[in-house]
Amino acid sequence: xxxxxxxxxxxxxxxxxxxxxxxxxxxxxxxxxxxxxxxxxxxxxxxxxxxxxxxxxxxxxxxxxxxxxxxxxxxxxxxxxxxxxxxxxxxxxxxxxxxxxxxxxxxxxxxxxxxxxxxxxxxxxxxxxxxxxxxxxxxxxxxxxxxxxxxxxxxxxxxxxxxxxxxxxxxxxxxxxxxxxxxxxxxxxxxxxxxxxxxxxxxxxxxxxxxxxxxxxxxxxxxxxxxxxxxxxxxxxxxxxxxxxxxxxxxxxxxxxxxxxxxxxxxxxxxxxxxx
Length: 276
What we know:
Blueprint: H1 10-28, E1 30-36, E2 44-45, E3 51-52, H2 54-65, E4 68-74, H3 77-85, E5 91-95, H4 99-102, E6 105-107, E7 112-121, H5 137-141, E8 148-151, H6 164-167, E9 170-172, H7 175-183, E10 189-193, H8 194-204, E11 210-226, H9 232-243, E12 259-260, H10 263-274
Helix pairs in contact: 2-9
């Protein structure tokens, strides 16, 4: 019987070729840890006991499309920022590309818009409505003695520095705490992401007693990556996945507010405050 000729080393070559073909698949299986916290309707445990919400769904879709496997880890927002900065966490959702974060993080292109608003209680019957006399943005910004709260680390209005009433807002670590203080009449107003406020107020049966005084602006938010977790080339893939997302549903539109801090209002504010 004649033994078939097999070139020496052919099996090594085949394994090398197989590894070469599989290398993109191996890269595609890179796992990224993603921080989440209870912030409905963006991230929450649903009635089936599963992690769900708009940010969670979008992040899963974006990262999977970009070739990653997301692994979600429950963390408070401030802790998540700290861990990203120290390369102990890969991704934080719904982040702002603030200058101080650029040194330690990479940011995707924005994947959704977040509407920030200034909410207040409706006036108590028989009492004067303090907000009624603040019929324009400069008047509101120059009003003294307003007790306003905002979430720590957020900058929901580009012209905050030119608006003393908002710049002096007390910072809190949790949105729920601010809502509790507002309903207890210990705060005059709270600056908050509208969709979360809407969700929580509906839970408490308090949405009929709350007014939107000011639409601050639509704020684009991004995925924030620890710099050592992803490369610039991988960020490009993430951005491509974001560009392919469908348009957001109308239910995430901002509310009707008494005042609107649109770009024209911002220009008016700047011009007015220069005269004071």
